Amino acid sequence: MTQCDAILEVLQRGETITPAQAYELCGTLALHSRISELRGQFYDIDCKIIKTASGKHVGCYSLIEHIAYG
């Protein structure tokens, strides 16, 4: 399973994912890049900036829909 596959699986369950969760799940430090790849496959993914318990601001991603073309 690729990093994108693991992230997409989480999103398709209706859950959100943050960089810390992506690192824990599949070892990626490049969640934004993996999200960009998924968007390139026509997944509509939203990003909201949230504040963590430590006060850091991070992106929290959620799947809106998969747009089928063709």
Please characterize this protein's 3D structure.
- Helices cover 40% and strands 27% of the residues.
- With 70 residues, it is an alpha+beta fold.
- The protein has one domain: Arc Repressor Mutant, subunit A, CATH 1.10.10.
- Strands 1-2 form a two-stranded antiparallel ribbon.
- A hairpin with a 5-residue loop joins β1 (43-51) and β2.
- α1 crosses α3 (31-40).
- The model has no long low-confidence stretch (mean pLDDT 94).
How do the strands and helices of this protein lay out in sequence?
Layout: H1 3-12, H2 19-26, H3 31-40, E1 43-51, E2 57-66
Antiparallel strand pairs: 1-2
Helix content: 40-55%
Which CATH class is shown?
Mainly Alpha
State mean pLDDT (0 to 100 scale): 94
Q: What's the tally of helices?
A: 3
- The CATH topology label is Arc Repressor Mutant, subunit A
Strand share of the residues?
Answer: 25-35%
The CATH architecture comes to Orthogonal Bundle
How does the helix and strand content classify structurally? alpha+beta
The count of DSSP E runs of length 2 or more, i.e. the number of strands, is 2
Low-pLDDT runs: none
Could you give the order of the helices and strands?
HHHEE
Main sheet: strand order? 1-2
Distance between the termini: 26 Å
**Count of individual domains:** 1
The backbone outline, from C-alpha atoms, is globular
